[in-house]
From TrEMBL, chains A, B:
<feature type="binding site">
    <location>
        <position position="210"/>
    </location>
    <ligand>
        <name>NAD(+)</name>
    </ligand>
</feature>
<dbReference type="InterPro" id="IPR001692">
    <property type="entry name" value="Histidinol_DH_CS"/>
</dbReference>
<feature type="binding site">
    <location>
        <position position="258"/>
    </location>
    <ligand>
        <name>substrate</name>
    </ligand>
</feature>
<dbReference type="InterPro" id="IPR016161">
    <property type="entry name" value="Ald_DH/histidinol_DH"/>
</dbReference>
<keyword id="KW-0560">Oxidoreductase</keyword>
<feature type="binding site">
    <location>
        <position position="326"/>
    </location>
    <ligand>
        <name>substrate</name>
    </ligand>
</feature>
<feature type="active site" description="Proton acceptor">
    <location>
        <position position="326"/>
    </location>
</feature>
<feature type="binding site">
    <location>
        <position position="359"/>
    </location>
    <ligand>
        <name>substrate</name>
    </ligand>
</feature>
<feature type="binding site">
    <location>
        <position position="413"/>
    </location>
    <ligand>
        <name>substrate</name>
    </ligand>
</feature>
<dbReference type="GO" id="GO:0000105">
    <property type="term" value="P:L-histidine biosynthetic process"/>
</dbReference>
<feature type="binding site">
    <location>
        <position position="261"/>
    </location>
    <ligand>
        <name>Zn(2+)</name>
    </ligand>
</feature>
<comment type="function">
    <text>Catalyzes the sequential NAD-dependent oxidations of L-histidinol to L-histidinaldehyde and then to L-histidine.</text>
</comment>
<keyword id="KW-0862">Zinc</keyword>
<keyword id="KW-0479">Metal-binding</keyword>
<protein>
    <recommendedName>
        <fullName>Histidinol dehydrogenase</fullName>
        <ecNumber>1.1.1.23</ecNumber>
    </recommendedName>
</protein>
<dbReference type="InterPro" id="IPR012131">
    <property type="entry name" value="Hstdl_DH"/>
</dbReference>
<dbReference type="InterPro" id="IPR022695">
    <property type="entry name" value="Histidinol_DH_monofunct"/>
</dbReference>
Length: 435, 435
């Protein structure tokens, strides 16, 4: 247990330090090689990597809509029902995010507009691994659907049978994703960013992945011939802010929910109650023993931090200093604390709001800025699947009204041609040529 | 003159190709060295670079508010009036962009919110050079002001006298920018991203600059201890789409407005009228001769392209393929073409809407995605100075309603602790412990 007020400022910084992400030079070079290979050799190279790492017999990348739908029928009725509940909530919440175009007359005759439009082609990456992640398909696929993106491209590594999990297929179907390609890793990111014979280039790539995927996303986002990406990546994390009245079993279960994601997950409890911290620690031990992903969660919990503060206000300051991806507030009057909370990817208010709710089904997106990026990046939302652009139109009167100011400013910046573009028009207007 | 329909697809791609941006390895290493030096040595190193490149006698970085205000009084009354006109239009248009927070009950007892909040600290970079750029101060400073960013930090290289242009000082004053530091180049970007003794770290850096600044922004945006940036950079560009009724003198002046920005500026005319193209070329020669920045504009115009299409619909396709930063439409019924135009940073509709209007005073932002990034990045706007985050709160009823679906999905993904976090709560509720 860390007693916050006993720490020096440097000690406080250290208590909240995240593990250093080391993108080794060798990872960087390996991924750069994969990117270059995919750019040069296209599908053949993607297939070769896929045969090597995922499915030895794969000979083509696309998974047909017919196959998607056939796989989707294999999902059990209760899982299907649960997916539908989640899908509807996520869809509702992202529909509510639809932005309004703006039209404003700033000066008589000068109309300015801001318009929103869906990105044309988005690439959604879904990692493989031991268990399927239909929730991530929804978190990426629903906003793409609601935005109205013309092309929704999903890449995910095939299993040994050259297929994908039925739950992934069903979630893709719900989101109207018709382009599914059986590939993963840096090769999938490269294929979506640069395009291959079978996968047309996309404009922006979304989704989580391992260190190869993360590095590949970063590299393609730095290239003019690549693609934009959703946000920078980092290990997942939760900070639970709890007072003495919190339920220690709930708090422990929330810390462990984070811990089971991976051995590098960060779980932090900040409380003004020593008794609550001790009770939570005991609950962690109890609950940890029963988890199927016990070894992963145990490793993550070795780095868990329990921070004792003098009062709840101080606990809020600790949370602000950390800027957690997930912030769970289990205190009396939890909602009242929101005004003082500055940075978090998503905030879970009160004891009935576990992280699991947002991870799966409440409606909010589970793709969130982590690793302190909650200070300067947004939670994933509908706007990330759209572009904003402006339109302006000056009438002859608008030019008359605004022309003199434009000319004066262009002149002050020494830009003659800018001034001239207005002067020529003003001269025409003086001649009465309004058309 | 390029006859579009006579080109092969490859020829068409080549006709719209942008110059390759070569970020040389030496630039990369030089900038990385500057970044490392600023991180280690802080103010002393920033001052040393500044003395070397900008002002030999500078001994401290901040420019006081008193000095800012004193400099601002030196602006002539007519330039001040023009700046105020522009400021008010830009302010109005960015105020109109204020987003609405969302609160939605997705399932009875499950409330999801999306909230917007200003970024805390933004860094605004204003290049030095031959002429001051008060318009850029406004384009960055006004949205920061309207968003309500707590800290607005402006870095700009000092002149020989260790001061800044009065127009910059006035624009900064209008935008309520109180933190001004006399430094430029990669060292200024590093100082804002990492922080020094006198410049506290910022969350996001905005603004244009030379190749050192651009490379520095790119590098700090890739570091977890750095800062976010506004958008990727590239040479500025305009595409004018005009029919036979367009005024060739206006068209030429718009091409030249772009050309005078720099020798790497791109200017493209697409028209279905050979006569208009020829008349524009003649006008370009005439007007070019009179420009003070003739040598810069001439070099840019050497790479100008004049593309003849079979009709206006084809011209729109050419524009969509190019995805220009600035698109000027000077055709009959220009507004009707908007429905077919897919990508552009900002669109200028009709003959009274020159690029100069948006560059200075109409109200739209002049920081726009260039180099084809109009496909997947947005024009700068108020939202770039804000963050979105989500909040969710489940009541006991919300947990009852949604809990079973969450547990089912967590189980399908093999995440026991996620399931357990809900199971524990459901068990409490079954015991009647709602609190």
């Amino acid at each position: 247990m860390i007693n916050w007020s006993s720490l020096t400022p440097a000690g406080q910084t250290e208590a909240l330090a995240r593990p250093v992400m080391k993108n080794s030079d060798s990872l960087r070079v390996t991924v750069a090689d994969i990117l270059a290979t995919i750019r040069q050799q296209g599908d053949a190279a993607v297939l070769e990597y896929t045969r090597k790492f995922d499915c030895a017999s794969l000979n083509s990348l696309p998974l047909s809509v017919a196959k998607r739908d056939e796989l989707a029928t294999r999902v059990s009725a209760d899982v299907k029902d649960a997916l539908l509940v989640a899908f509807n909530n996520v869809k509702q919440f992202h529909e509510a995010q639809k932005p309004q175009d703006i039209t404003l007359t700033t000066t008589p005759g000068v109309v300015c507009e801001q318009r929103f439009t869906a990105l044309d082609a988005v690439g959604l990456y879904i990692p493989g691994g031991s268990a399927p992640l239909p929730s991530t398909v929804m978190m990426l696929g629903v906003p793409a659907l609601v935005a109205g993106c013309e092309r929704k491209v999903l890449c995910t590594p095939p299993n040994q049978a050259g297929e994908i999990a039925p739950e992934i297929a069903l979630a893709a179907s719900l989101c109207g994703i018709e382009e599914i390609y059986l590939c993963g890793g840096a090769q999938a990111i490269a294929a979506m960013a640069f395009g291959t014979e079978s996968i047309a280039k996309v404009d922006k790539i979304f989704g989580p992945g391992n260190s190869f995927v993360t590095e590949a996303k970063q590299q393609v986002s730095q290239r003019a011939d690549g693609a934009a990406i959703d946000m920078p990546a980092g290990p997942s994390e939760v900070l639970v802010l709890a007072d003495g009245n919190a339920n220690a079993a709930f708090v422990a279960s929330d810390l462990l929910s984070q811990a089971e994601h991976g051995p590098d997950s960060q779980a932090i409890l900040v409380s003004d109650s020593e008794a609550l911290i001790e009770a939570t620690k005991a609950q962690v031990e109890l609950q940890l023993a029963k988890l199927s992903r016990n070894s992963i969660a145990s490793r993550a919990m070795e780095n868990a931090r329990y921070i004792l503060t003098g009062n709840i206000s101080e606990a809020v300051l600790v949370s602000n200093a950390y800027a957690p991806e997930h912030l769970i507030v289990q205190t009396d009057n939890a909602r009242e604390l929101l005004t003082d909370i500055k940075y978090a990817g998503s905030i879970f208010v009160g004891q009935w709001s576990p992280e699991s709710a947002g991870d799966y089904a409440s409606g909010t997106n589970h793709v969130l800025p982590t690793y302190g990026y909650a200070r300067n990046y947004s939670s994933l939302g509908l706007l990330d699947f759209m572009r904003r652009f402006t339109v302006q139109e000056l009438s002859a009167d608008g030019m008359r009204n605004l022309g003199p100011a434009i000319m004066k400013l262009a002149s002050a910046e020494g830009l003659d041609a800018h001034e001239q573009a207005v002067a020529l028009r003003m001269a025409e207007l003086e001649k009465g040529n309004e058309q």
